[in-house]
Structures are given as C-alpha cells and as structure tokens.
Amino acid sequence: MSKALANRRLLTRLSVFAVAMFGFGFALVPFYEKICEVAGINNLIKPAAAVENTQIDRSRTITLEFDANAHGLEWEFKPVQTSVRVHPGEMIQVEYDVRNKGAKPVVGQAIPSYGPKHAAPFVKKLECFCFKQQPLLAGEGKRMPVQFVIDSTLPADVNTITLSYTFFEVKGAALPKGGDQG
Amino acid sequence: MEAAHTHHGDTHGHAHDDHHGHKPSGLMRWVKSTNHKDIGTMYLWFSFTMFLVGGVMALIIRSELFQPGLQIVQPDFFNSMTTYHGLIMVFGAIMPAFVGFANWLIPMQIGAPDMAFPRMNNLSFWLLPPAALLLITAQFMPGGGAGVGWTMYAPLSTQAGPAMDLTIFAVHILGISSIMGSINIITTILNMRAPGLTLMKMPLFCWTWLITAYLLVAVMPVLAGAVTMTLTDRHFGTHFFNAAGGGDPVLYQHIFWFFGHPEVYIIAIPAFGVVSQVIPAFSRKPLFGYASMVYATASIAILSFMVWAHHMYTAGMPVEAQLYFMYATTLIAVPTGVKVFNWVATMWKGSLTFETPMLFALGFLFLFTLGGFTGLVLSITPVDVQLHDTYYVVAHFHYVMVAGALFSAFAGIYFWLPKWTGKMYNESLGKLHFWLSLIFFNVTFFVQHFLGLAGMPRRIPDYSLQFTEFNMISSIGAWGFGLSQLLFLYVVIKCIRSGEKAPDKPWDGADSLEWTHLPTPAPWHSFETPPVIK
C-alpha cells in the first residue's frame, strides 16, 4: 500500500470517528434522561411514586410558603394562599390563580423549585398543574390545584419549605382550541 | 547518513510538487504555505498575538479588581472580559501554541519530510484568524460580549445577546481547525516515521502529541455538539437545556465537561512532552522511565474521560456519583505522580546546567505540581462544595495553565529557537524573562488561594472590603507579569534579527533527530530521504 493511500485511509477513519463523536454528544441527551429516570432524580414535574410514609406526624409542624413567578410571559400568576402550616404525612391541597393578560394565546410550563434545596425530594406532589403544559387563550384565567404530602422522613432541621413555581413560555407548542382542560 | 536525494523522489505524493524546493516570497508564501515549518511559525505568532489580546483582557479584569467598588468598567463588560479572556487563552493562545510546536517538530523528530496532509494543514491554520475575529467582534455586538463565562453554561447562554451566536460559530470553527490538525498529526506520526523508528523509540514530545490528538478528535466534536444544541435552543425552538420544554440546563454541564476535562489534558499533555525533551537535555541524561512516561500519559488521557462531573459537585448529583467522581479524580494523581517522579529522577545525578529553557522547565515542574496539589484538594467533594467558584479554583487552574502549559511553551521556545532561527537568543535577557515571570506569576496567583479560602467568589467585578489587600497584590502582580511578556517579545525579535549564529547542536544533551541529523537553522525541506534509525 502506498504511503499516500495509507494516509488517506487513516484520514477517512479518523473523520468518521470525529463525526461519530459529534453524534455521541447528542446521544448523551437521551442517555442522561434515562439515567435520571432510573436514578429517580430530576422528576420535579412528574407525579411522585407511591408515598410510603403516610403516618401523620402530629409532633411536627412545617410551614410551607408559596411563591409564583412568570418568566417572559404576560401572565398574572399567584398562589391563593401564601402559606400553610402542615404536619408531615398530611395530604394538602393548595391552589394557584393564573391569567393570561397578553393579547395572544400562549402555552406555559411551570417549573417548581424548593428552598432549602435539599427539601425537594420530601415534597411528594401527587397532583400538580406543573405535570403538563398549560395553554391559555388571551385573557383566559384559571384556578389550578397542587396536591402533595410532606414525607415524614423530612430532616429535623427543616421547619420551613418554600415552594416556588415559575411559568416559562413553551415556544412552538401546539395551542389546542379552547384550552380549557387544565 | 543522508543520501543524496532529489526533490521529486518524494514518497508521499503531493506535498512539494509545486515548490521545487524554492521558497515563494512575499505574503503569498504564508497564505498558500503547505510547509510544516512555515505553518508552525504562523501558529506560534498567531498564538502569541492572541496571548497579548487575552492578556489585555486579564489586565482589564485585574485593574477593576485592584480596589473594591466599580472604578473602570461596568459589570456586563467585566463579565464579557472574564469570558473572552478564558476562551481566547484556551483556544487562541495555548492550544495553537502547542500545535505550532507539533508542526515544527513532529516531522523533524520522526524523520518525515512534512506533515501527512500539507494542504489540510494550511486550512487548519487559516481557520483560526476568522474564529479569533469572531471572538473579538463579539465585543461590539448589541448588548456587548456574552458575559456567560468560558464554560458558556445554559440557561445563561441560551438567553444571552447576539454576541453569543458569534461565540458559538467561533467555537465551531476552532473545533474544526483542531480536529483537522489532530488528524494530520495522528496520520503523520503513525504513517510517516523513518524506517526503524518504532513508536517506543519516538521522542516523548511525539508521544504526548499522538495522545493529545486522539483526545482532540474524541472531544472537540462533543463541544461542537453542546454549542450546536445551545444554538438550536436559542433560535430553532429546541429544548435541550430549556426546563420549560422538558430539557435540563444541568445536561449542558455534563456534555460540556465531558469535553472540558479532557480539554484540560489537551493543554497539559503537550506541555509534559516539551518538558520531557528539555529536562533530559540539560541533565545530560536520557529521560528516566521512558516507557512508564508513555503509559502514564496514556492513563491520564483515558482517566480524563471518566472524571468530568468533579467540575459540578454543586450542580446536584446523587451522593454515590459524587463518591465515584471523587475517587476517580484522585486516581489521576497516580500517573501524574509517576511523571513528576520521572522528571525529578532524570535530574538525579545528572550534570545539570540552568539555561533559560531548563529554568522554565523547572518552574513548570515546581508550580505545576503545586497546581496539581490544589487540584487534589478540590477533588475532595466536601472541600469542593466550600471552594467551588471561588478564587481558590482560579488560582488552581492558573497554576496548571500558566505556570504549567505556558511556562512549558516558553521552555520549548527558548529550547528550539536556535534550531528554528539559526541564531541564539540573549541568555541573560532570557533568564531575566524567566525570573520576572516566575516572581510576578506567584505574586498574582499565590494570594488568590487565600482569597478563595476566605470565600471570594470568581467572576465578580466588585467584592467586599476584607479582600482588598490580596486583590491589590494580585493586580500588581498581573501588571508585572503582563509587562514581562513584552520582554519575551523583545528577546525573540532580537534573536531573529541580530542573534549570534547558533551551532547545529547548541545543547549538549539534546538527542532527538532535529538536533543530531539536521543543520541549524533547520532547512526549509528536511528529510526528503528518511534517515535510518538503528
């Protein structure tokens, strides 16, 4: 094999390898999602698996504070009650009001975040408007529920948990006619 | 050893058929050059230019940080400076500098007439200036440069202004350039060695570049993928990193650091190669533990793919993952320790002299090891949680990037300058450059360890009052370090213009082919007929 041909072969192989590694970068996306799913992390907008500790612990009272923001959306979004006091293991339902004050129908997605951060896994959401995208017509408003249980294994140093939702616009999402199913 | 040869007796097809051994003159010599030495020279001058641009940005950063409060620049501009200082130094200065070394030295060290693909080599270089222009013009886009940090984390980068798009395209172009350069280097080393020069007889510099080139081909495309996702998230409605659409910004960090950690070794490993040539030459002894050096370098390269998440201990990760990444990271200290041991053992009972290249190599050895130690400290998860994104991290990576990679590049330039130019540099001025660099480097960065331990965060234009003294010291050091590099420029220009004629082998202990088989200065075409290695 001449040297020029050998060089060309190696060039082809290495180029294919480089292109494959470009693909590998994209393959990391589903791989990451699968790992998170298997490890049970990053499931903020999915219903909690079966709640194990349903025993109500009346010796502890946790203050839950609610916060709401809309990012880049002309939406008015606020909790109906700003805080509640609950016992671990107790089933709670709170509600949020949202209204599209813009002139166009938009689809939004709410993302929860928790303070303190390490309290997040102990807030078991059973029902939440954040589990699906929320389409709102211009001027449309609705009241949306969140149902959850605070796991009684919550670390003893946590007495207050802040649950903050932020609505983001989902660009390119299909707008269903009517948009009334929450 | 070198038989009479004709220029048309070439064994590799297409390299010189349009030259006939005559150097074209004027600008076109450089624009159209396919000669590895010319291209190497262009890489080195380009990287020095970028080093000055990135250096000016560093001085803007340090001048603002001289005192607390906002004196000179606005926070947005400050953030842009930290971002482009990092990008330009990594992709524009350090990486091209070592590619310049590779171009100059690999064909000479393996007895090849040129690189395997001389035209592709030309293209690899000429992609760099447009990329550099994109990075610089990004400063003048509406909203200024993208102040997202050199890591370009989402979601900040998916929301940044139009400068971000220029930055993304620059990264694409730089990536393509690096991949082509690496393919060229791998092919040259694997296919074009002189007869008898087995892989395990190659100078260690060639080994380190072979390994580095594989790393580059493996990870530069991953970075290209990450910034492509950022681009489509910004403009084409995808949701790779957009939480609202089901994506995850933390995913960006994983993909970025899958590139980013090997990238750290892409910078460090060629530096190991240079030092492994310089230390034996000035110890007048062969390199201690050659084979273990090769295996240690390869182990570092393989491990670099398995430790990426130690950059993200605070991003949220299961504790098992943190433990794994912590142990895997500390494991890297083993092959690195082997290398440091071998360099020291090479000097043991050697007959040492301390010319400028050796001084820079020793500066490298001492300070790189120090940077390695702080790296070990940072690899411990609970410690890192305290020190993450503080000036301790800034100090750590400047010890390995500046005192590591840059000092090694200086060592290499002083070492090979006689071979390249045919003239000697001024030894006293070279030594002065070393001592100024060494002292001012430590004045700049040593105190940053204390700032970090005291809790000063990185990437901020203002800070609380208790950090003032150390910041003042650091800023003074930075100006000293920056100005010292003008002395380096003077030394190099003086050497090229009026240096004394250098002998064929100015260093006693140098033993690779470029010293033993080629005249000084190295002829424009070398090894048209390969030397035979016994």
Describe, in plain words, how this protein is organized in 3D:
The complex is a heterodimer of chains A (182) and B (534). With 182 residues, chain A is an alpha+beta fold. Chain A folds into 2 domains: 1-51, no CATH class; 62-169, Ctag/Cox11 (Pfam 04442). Chain A is built from 1 helix and 9 strands; from the N terminus they run αβββββββββ. In chain A, the strands form 2 sheets. Chain A has a 5-stranded mixed β-sheet with strand order 3-1-9-5-7, with no helix packed on it. In chain A, strands 2-4-8-6 form a 4-stranded antiparallel β-sheet, with no helix packed on it. Chain A starts with a helix and ends in a 13-residue tail after the last strand. The model of chain A is unreliable at 178-182 (pLDDT under 50). Chain B is mainly α. Chain B has one domain (33-516): Up-down Bundle (Cytochrome C Oxidase, Chain A), CATH 1.20.210.10. Chain B has 18 helices and no strands. Chain B is globular, with a radius of gyration of 23 Å. Residues 1-20 of chain B have low confidence and may be disordered. The chains are: A alpha+beta (182), B mainly alpha (534). Chain A binds chain B through residues 2-4, 6-7, 10-11, 14-15, 17-19, 21-26, 28-29, 32, 36, 39, 41-42, 108-109, 111, 117, 167-173, and chain B through 11-14, 116-117, 179, 182-183, 186-187, 190-192, 217-226, 229, 237, 240, 242-246, 248, 250-251, 254-255, 258, 316, 318.
Please provide a brief summary of the model:
The complex is a heterodimer of chains A (182) and B (534). Chain A has 182 residues and is an alpha+beta fold.
Per-chain topology:
The complex is a heterodimer of chains A (about 180) and B (about 525).
Chain A: H1 3-39, E1 62-71, E2 75-79, E3 83-86, E4 91-100, E5 106-115, E6 123-128, E7 134-136, E8 141-150, E9 160-169
Parallel strand pairs in A: 1-9
Antiparallel strand pairs in A: 1-3, 2-4, 4-8, 5-7, 5-9, 6-8
Chain B: H1 27-31, H2 36-64, H3 75-110, H4 118-126, H5 128-137, H6 156-159, H7 163-191, H8 204-235, H9 249-283, H10 290-303, H11 319-331, H12 333-347, H13 356-379, H14 381-387, H15 391-421, H16 427-453, H17 468-498, H18 513-516
Helix pairs in contact in B: 2-3, 2-4, 2-17, 3-5, 3-7, 3-9, 3-15, 4-7, 5-7, 7-8, 8-9, 8-10, 9-12, 9-13, 9-15, 10-12, 13-15, 13-16, 15-16, 16-17
